[in-house]
Amino acid sequence: MITLLQTAERLRKGLTTPNELIESALAAINNSAHVFITVLEQRAFDDAKASTRRWQQGAPLSPFDGIPYAVKDLLDVVGSRTTAGSITRIDAPIAVEDAHVIAALSALGMIPLGKTNLTEFAYSGLGLNPHFGTPTCDVPVGESRVPGGSSSGSAIAVQRGIVSCSIGTDTSGSIRIPAAFNALVGYKASTGRYNMTGVHPLAITLDSLGPLAHTVADCVALDAAMRGMQDVAIEAADLSRLRFVIDDGVMSDPALQPAVRHNLVLMMEQLRAAGAEVERRTVLAVARTRELIAREGWLGAIEAWRLLGTIVEGPQGHSMDRRVLHRLRAAKEIEPASESRIRHLRTELMTAMEHELDGAILVLPTVKHVAPPMASLSEDDELFARVNLETLSLTMIGSLLDMPGVAIPSGKDSIGLATSTLFATTEGRDDALLGACLAIEAGLRPPCLPATR
Hints:
- By secondary structure, the chain is an alpha/beta fold.
- It has helices at 4-12, 18-29, 41-56, 100-107, 152-159, 176-181, 216-226, 248-251, 258-273, 284-296, 299-312, 322-332, 336-357, 374-379, 381-392, 395-400, 430-443; strands at residues 36-39, 68-72, 111-116, 165-170, 185-188, 208-213, 243-247, 277-281, 361-365, 405-412, 418-424.
- The protein contains 17 helices and eleven strands.
- The longest helix has 22 residues, at 336-357.
- The two termini are 28 Å apart.
């Protein structure tokens, strides 16, 4: 594993060149099926040559000049189609402008290697795609596991070492879930943090962007670059001044796998020993948000139907992934009055969460379970629907309340599958959260021990 910051250091010291980085990354793609929908080979070679010259002349555009990254195929990149993982967009127009965040990274010399695979229209937390195949991670078990979605390819590109970092989108958990299943760090920003120009929407109220990488420090660096900043202004917080609240209601959920619970508790014990204040109690705003979603439906589904309903009911609908099609048709049945109630209570719950946390950081499992086996989910649509809902159930809380969140690996279960802990805070406090997560990363003894129960 070579991180983004380590790669930047190697470039600074002259230990590698952008040409070498691109050649290595393109070679790795050939050994990783279904990770990319489009490989931007010619652009990557051309950009690498220009970047290599700049380094040779002592004039790089930034410390990250020449570093390749992967981008989810929901963002426009000049010269490529934005398929959104759907066969219905296979003839979509070629992008003539980069998405705003891609342009920001290009201005710093970073190189988009290609457009990564995803669940069709980003509408599932498991990451399966019947049109472009499903990317899989390297796991220590004999059967393939789901990659997590919808940013499946973005996660696997990092997990397999093709790139050191990638960009994903997150509407219900689509960065945090694949990060959790693949032992990565994934940061879902508040919705207003990035300019969303050139990002294919799913649910405009909830859509957000963010990086996936091996470390919090890499995510912080890429976050700054996505906003056009060469220098990272966020520093690690003082761990002894941080307060964490573990939600007891979620921790008591019978569906929570023992290894996920055990590793979260172990992680928080380490942080307490390092000086942090750790409290465990029921957070009423979390419980009320879960109840609201179960009772009224998902706001993201309502907005997704509004956007995609004409495709579902049009001549191309029959070609869509049947599981995505079923979920979208179900969204059509949500009563209009429910949307009004959801939006009203959403505002109330955002305020309630602010009061309950009072500056503390909320701690939840990122997902209740480790990555489930792929074969059974591919074959059984009812099972897929149940597992998908369980997979999304905890990340949806933060999505509805516009809470920035960082998924951090917490350890492994007894057979070596990754578990993850989610750290979240209230809308717009992204800098504070990232500073806290830098402190968390420094305060933990890597790696957390595997669960024994």
